[in-house]
Here is the input.
Amino acid sequence: MEEITKDTILNASQGDMNAFETIYKNTSGFVYNVALRMAGSYDTAAEITQDVFLKVYEELKNFRHASVFRTWLYRITVNMTLNALKKNSKYADKTIDIDAMPDSILTENPVHDQIERNTRNEELQKLLDTLSEDQKICIVLRDIEDMSYKEIAETLNLNINTVRTRLKRARETLLKRAAGGKLNEMH
Amino acid sequence: MTDLADGELNAEKAKLVSGHLAECHACREFKYNFIKTAVEPFKAVRREPPAAYIWRNIRSRIEQKNTLKDPILPDMLRGWLSFPRVALATATVALLIFVSVLFISNQRTGTNAPDKIHFYTENTAQTKEDYFSYLYEGIDESYENETGLGTAIEELIL
Here is the structure.
């Protein structure tokens, strides 16, 4: 992800939509993928992504550069995703329903033509859904978003050892599921 | 094992674990299975690009919000209206109290008219008749035949 300059943030906070689009282009991949893996639904991920960026747009004027912009945005993303999943029934759908996706998504994301890959992703999503939300977000940030323990701890506002413990427990759960034969079918 | 798989072990511990793995077949096998089943599959998940319609929606919702917020207000007026509400409310209450106090004090000086009583003396009256008619103003007839009360001054004092 390209670093976003202070000028870009300042301009966006003053209503410059081109600057805000730059921020969106640089960070939407993270927001969308975290929401997608946490919610397990393309529609829900799209909704959460929109809500996150509307919130970011509103809050940009309050951003004081006390923290790194990416960390700030990651926190908003993770908090809004977890809150949305916990509190709002409109995000209750937890399945990836390819038939229900708008045509625009299917045409704009060629990956959805690859049925094999989708099946694999769906299986992995099912595995992820066996984890608690606390464990799942750690796995998503670590394995899919490739963040370090320190970055995860900063994003989730946790002690680094708590992150370590959650990852350890998550992987123990995944190993148990694998021993039950779920993963063997994929390899 | 988690720290090892994630490259988060410090150099000293990493050396220790690697030394053990070189000698222990069971641990080597465990490490292989651990990474193959609990780590690698998720690292291989493809990160999906968000669809273009998401940005279009965000942009249109922001523009819609901005239009609803202040359709025609100039910047200066917008600044005024965005003045903190608490400060505005406090200033309004203070102004109301000030106006009320001013109004009440004016009412009092108007109705009691103490200056008339103090300064409307025999010397300032044009004639004695004026003076006595002033003193007789507001005489309560019920006092006339009793203890001599009944003038405006006496009633005021009592």
User: Anything to note?
Assistant: The mean pLDDT of chain B is 75. Chain B touches chain A through 34 residues (CB under 8 Å). The two ends of chain B are 100 Å apart (CA to CA).
